[in-house]
Amino acid sequence: QVQLVESGGGLVQAGGSLRLSCAPSVRTFSGTAMGWFRQAPGKEREFVTAIRWGGSTYYADSVKGRFTISRDAAKTTVYLQMNTLKPEDTAVYYCASNRRSPFYPTDPTGYDLWGQGTQVTVSS
Predict the structure, then answer these.
(1) Cβ–Cβ under 8 Å, residues 33 and 53
(2) Which of 99, 81, 85 is nearest to 36 (CA)?
(3) Which of 3, 43, 48, 110 is the most buried (most CB within 10 A)?
């Protein structure tokens, strides 16, 4: 069974940086868009960022200018570089794959495979 495996979460002070990684356990998702969502305690899961197979990127307003999504050259791994972290960025971060067309990056129902989540905690 194909899974998405995330890594890179942890505890960081406000203003610090973390990089999350997400890769499929078995094979590359050709033609697939990838996204990151997050869920804080007591809140609904929210869109963070996404990248299409062709490289177009999308960001939530709350992370624009601070977070960057990218893929490696082989398009096997997706990264989320998070800079200037704030306490309100504290959440469990999930990566997910999306093969639907048309592509709606912010709609979680369009993502068919999700990772297990990785905790990001930003202390003040």
Answers:
(1) yes
(2) 81
(3) 48
pLDDT tens digits for range 36-85:
999 999 999 999 999 999 999 999 999 999 999 999 888 789 999 999 99
CA distance 19 to 52: 19
Please state, in angstroms and rounded to a whole number, the distance separating the CA atoms of residues 37 and 47: 5
Over residues 2-38, the pLDDT tens digits come to 789 999 999 999 999 999 999 987 766 677 899 999 9
Tokens 């990056």, located at residue = 105
Amino acid at the residue 103: F
CA gap 79, 70 in Å, rounded:
5
